[in-house]
Description:
The complex is a heterotrimer of chains A (293), B (355) and C (274). Chain B has 355 residues and is of the alpha/beta class. Chain B has helices at residues 2-20, 50-58, 70-78, 91-99, 158-161, 176-186, 196-209, 221-226, 237-244, 275-285, 288-298, 305-309, 313-316, 326-329, 339-354; strands at 36-41, 61-66, 86-87, 103-104, 134-146, 170-173, 213-217, 232-236, 250-253, 260-266, 268-269, 332-333.
Amino acid sequence: xxxxxxxxxxxxxxxxxxxxxxxxxxxxxxxxxxxxxxxxxxxxxxxxxxxxxxxxxxxxxxxxxxxxxxxxxxxxxxxxxxxxxxxxxxxxxxxxxxxxxxxxxxxxxxxxxxxxxxxxxxxxxxxxxxxxxxxxxxxxxxxxxxxxxxxxxxxxxxxxxxxxxxxxxxxxxxxxxxxxxxxxxxxxxxxxxxxxxxxxxxxxxxxxxxxxxxxxxxxxxxxxxxxxxxxxxxxxxxxxxxxxxxxxxxxxxxxxxxxxxxxxxxxxxxxxxxxxxxxxxxxxxxxxxxxxx
Amino acid sequence: xxxxxxxxxxxxxxxxxxxxxxxxxxxxxxxxxxxxxxxxxxxxxxxxxxxxxxxxxxxxxxxxxxxxxxxxxxxxxxxxxxxxxxxxxxxxxxxxxxxxxxxxxxxxxxxxxxxxxxxxxxxxxxxxxxxxxxxxxxxxxxxxxxxxxxxxxxxxxxxxxxxxxxxxxxxxxxxxxxxxxxxxxxxxxxxxxxxxxxxxxxxxxxxxxxxxxxxxxxxxxxxxxxxxxxxxxxxxxxxxxxxxxxxxxxxxxxxxxxxxxxxxxxxxxxxxxxxxxxxxxxxxxxxxxxxxxxxxxxxxxxxxxxxxxxxxxxxxxxxxxxxxxxxxxxxxxxxxxxxxxxxxxxxxxxxxxxx
Amino acid sequence: xxxxxxxxxxxxxxxxxxxxxxxxxxxxxxxxxxxxxxxxxxxxxxxxxxxxxxxxxxxxxxxxxxxxxxxxxxxxxxxxxxxxxxxxxxxxxxxxxxxxxxxxxxxxxxxxxxxxxxxxxxxxxxxxxxxxxxxxxxxxxxxxxxxxxxxxxxxxxxxxxxxxxxxxxxxxxxxxxxxxxxxxxxxxxxxxxxxxxxxxxxxxxxxxxxxxxxxxxxxxxxxxxxxxxxxxxxxxxxxxxxxxxxxxxxxxxxxxxxxxxxxxxxxxxxxxxx
Lengths: 293, 355, 274
């Protein structure tokens, strides 16, 4: 089924050259410099000597940093899971809507995200804070009911709960868009057949829709999980005193600590791990696809 | 439909290019430099008419862009100056930039207004003889607090660093270096004598205190205090002075153990394309009237004695802007120590945050 | 009359959409409200005022930054769409040496921490291939557009590829047998099928570009300030509600453009659906 390049040389060159040249010249080349830094050390405040030492990686593998990484993985996984649960029905609704409503709903999902991230986070803070929208709303209702005593504001901000809420808020469209792109091409007749044969809507969803849309679901999970793992602004602003994520640590190395070699080592360690995970995922998908006739 | 759309998009792009493609020509001034200047500054850190006044006086148009902290400034200039003429680093970063060869020396002959500076700012430890920098403002860290929610005046670092009295209502600055130095000061050391042993002691102190701390802020402590999110916050005097103007239940104190001073300074980065305009601009900012106009807007303490003399009593006697008392005598400017020290501070603060 | 697949008409899904909508839009309501607040702070309500809108239109820096951001987002979306679609087609259609390496390299921009990529571009554009600083606008934005394209075209490729996975190759095969050129096949068969993926990819790329701070920070100079750069620099002295006002206007503008597009394209879409 897959062609060899020789079969359509022109098409191969037209589709292959631009992205490959771009990647090599404008992405891999700059990144290679940083990769080299991860084997270097600071000589002065601005000079980095590439010494070929593994010291930065050794430091990055200390329990202190591994524990932070583990915690970040947890945050990202929880965020991805919640985004999936929230986003799947939304994507489903969009893909089954009329063309006009489809465009409208897609833009409605995206509109909040054309507002600057910092501004959006500040707006979320205005809602969650101790004297914010939610607490004052509940407080107002509370005071209407006699005999409840004084209202204790809910701790909605500056804790790990707020970080997850913020991460879900920021990453939801990353989940909805790929899910929609995948669901939209489903063969409707399969779903109708399943319903006609007496399966319920939920059973159809999990037995027919989800397996068919698996590639889209996987790409949705990937492009939600990875950026969530790299979030630093959300934990910074919404988090409490123990919400530090690995990206905060990396960001501080490059900016406040002025320690580019160590920042580079931490970044590449994160990338190696993500790659291992992606490789594993592609193996699983390949086996899954191989099993089908 | 896609065809039509893309044709329309290309048409739009072509129009945009045609409109924008004409480069702006800058006339040359008498000094042979283009009549413009790139000023890299903190946000809301000039007077309302300062830049327009400079243009009226010299014909030089100032293009100002902003950074949020010294680390950003340093990181941005580290690989090379992308075209800035005047920058405003704080004292410790004047040293860092200078020893890294990222500043060009100032020509004092072209800055006659340096005579306006108060005597204590003329010769400073972080820049002996002021070869590289001219002071613009100075700042003191202290505790901003809500009077109705705090017993008396919290005039010791103890209340934010070593006590459960205000548990869950404290905000600390997220700047690792400042926190460690203040902790050292509280434990009786100089802010410039943070040995590895002292650093470990402060780290343990912060880890112990953390469960009483509500959050670490990035210099937006005044907002959190004003919003009632926290009742005590480690912040700069100028920031708290701004919110006191809106809410008289707020106050500022420099704890009796003494504090860390900072001073933001005007410098010319190495490779500045228009050094003569840069000198004229720095001289202009140090003018008495100009300095007073800036100070009226930003309300930070000014090191410019001539400008201070033009300020109203309300500003000069403001205890939040000019804290006084024995605490001030026990305060110092932070000095740059070493690369190893920066790394140790970073790791200490990562440990505190992860604990 | 409701078909079995008319999910939008069922109440559980409507409720769900409503709740998600509330979650997405409640902060926006707060944002818009604070743009009318009579205080510098975006935290405490002090009464209605239009001060910030007046301030916004007097603030040429903010408006310029805003314009730069829109131009960068539009340009990088366009390039990302082309590069990303090409990459997706290549990987979908061909088997060749180094394919796995290309796939991995395509995944990298999504995986690299932003700050790391930012520093990489900083070194690249100042020390290795200096981007001339004095180019006329909009070419002065080139470095930023390149950086944004680099991280967003992988996202486009990923989404388009997921969409291609469901494409029936036999259709293209049949067209080819009937003598259609590759370009015709691409334009008349592939593109119509890919539209949802292209739309989703373009929306992602546009959003990523419009919101990027870290990478832009390291590639921008004194004359190429973008909206996020401007906003982040305000943090030290608290974000002024002028920024909320700008965001409110952007929301209104998008909503208006959407309505216009819906109205203009309504006939087209109806035709397509038929």
